[in-house]
Amino acid sequence: MKGRVLVVGFATRHVVQSAFHAGYEVCAVDHFCDQDLFWYTKDRIKFEDLADLPDAVDEMCRRHTFDLLIVTSGAEELLSSIPLCGTPRNKVARFLDKLDIQHFFKANAVTVPRLLEPGEFPAMIKPRRGSGGWRNAIVKTAADQKAWELLNPDIKYIRQEMIAGIPASVCCIADGTRARAIAANEQILHGDGESSFGFCGSVTPFDHPLCKTMMQMAEQIAAASGCTGTIGIDFVVGDEMPYAIEINPRFQGTVDTVERAHGCNIFLYHIDACAGTLPPVSPEKKHVAVRSILFADRDITITDDLRHLRSCIADIPHPDTYFETGQALVSVYGWGATREAAFFLLDKHISTVKQYIR
Hints:
The chain has 358 residues and is of the alpha+beta class. The chain contains 10 helices and 17 strands. Among the domains are: 4-85, Rossmann fold, CATH 3.40.50; 107-160, no CATH class; 288-354, Aldehyde Oxidoreductase, domain 3, CATH 3.90.1170. Helix content is 27%, strand content 28%. The strands form 4 sheets. It has an 8-stranded antiparallel β-sheet. It has a 4-stranded parallel β-sheet with strand order 3-2-1-4, sandwiched between helices. It has a 3-stranded antiparallel β-sheet with strand order 6-5-7, with helices on one face. A hairpin with a 3-residue loop joins strand 8 and strand 9.
């Protein structure tokens, strides 16, 4: 065992799994505590609201001692006596506010969608804080904007110009002054309804003529950010250029497909980067990997135990778990030599999983 780490955040399974395979003993404080989280952790505590997170961490620290703290989404500004392995609180704060990110991009001459003046439409409206894109929306009129504000009361937001293109991201590893692009990913978005821009999965690697340019941009952004460890840069790839959208100073939801596609371990990269060592080169592609999150299309209880499907799914619910309409059920994977082959296997696996969602 290389040491004991505590992983804290709203969703931690992807990080916990990577840390486990890297040879660490892992404990977690997590909102979901799905079945597979138990397989990779020595201990875990479930919390309901982010406001409950500090008390849950204190309880875990009474049970165990830890060598390192790893934070994921929702826990970036957590105060703890455990040594943090990642971007310090005083540096991470600016990258949790999309307006501050916009100012950072402009100060570093990064191509970015323009902030719109009041009354300019159409606009992409986004909460200034939060991840996953679930409240992002296109507003075409003042009435559309008012409707969004009524649905999201008291939430500060930004309004950006609309950029047509493909949603993508780059996983980088940074040491505070330098960065290495590990992989480019195509993002899968929800695609319809009020949450049409919500993150629903990824395809790795992303195959596009502008991919090299995007990865170079991501390295420059990550190096200038001052962040340490793994950091994700989101883009929209237009016909002529990539536009930087956001910076995620933490482990990203693409960890699974990056590791499957490139045969690497993001947690080891993260640990090494926080100690000042970057990968000498980007890892080579082994195959194409895709992850798709399935969502409940109605209120449902999954009564079956899905653990026998563990080779092709993750975030596995416990038997008799109840889900409301729209909640995430399970992650499903596909892989293959080509994008087409990976999606063919994904569809096959989704069909299998849906036999148990009745």
